[in-house]
Amino acid sequence: MLALIQTILLAIDIYWWLIIASAIFSWLFAFNVINGRNQFVATIGDFLYRVTEPALRPIRRFTPDLGGIDISPIILLLILFFLREFIRTTIAPALL
Question: So where does this one cross the membrane (predicted)?
Fold first, then answer.
């Protein structure tokens, strides 16, 4: 059972970094630092969008419009942090 908990925590950690990478990529793309016409860059952007958008879309429906500032990644990171700590401090010790 401990292996399952560790695998779930690892998946949460990987998704955490994918959200951060997606936010950084969107900033670089918005400020024209990277070339969106490059096929490799477009592939990375498409991958990050497809991985993170299903989790960010429901949060965006409930957050207010802040004039171009998207706080949904921050909210999702807070949710993932809470979930990770809940599993690590509450569920994992109960199974040991």
Answer: 14-34, 66-87
Structure letter (DSSP) for residue 77: H
Alpha carbons 53 and 56: distance in angstroms, whole number = 5
Alpha carbons within 13 angstroms on the beta-carbon side of residue 16 total 14
Cα separation, 43 vs 36, in Å, equals 9
CA distance 1 to 5: 6
Cα separation of 82 and 79, whole Å?
5
CB atoms within 10 A of CB 58: 10
Q: List the domain boundaries for the chain.
A: 2-95
Q: What is the pLDDT of residue 16?
A: 97
More confident residue, 41 or 64: 41
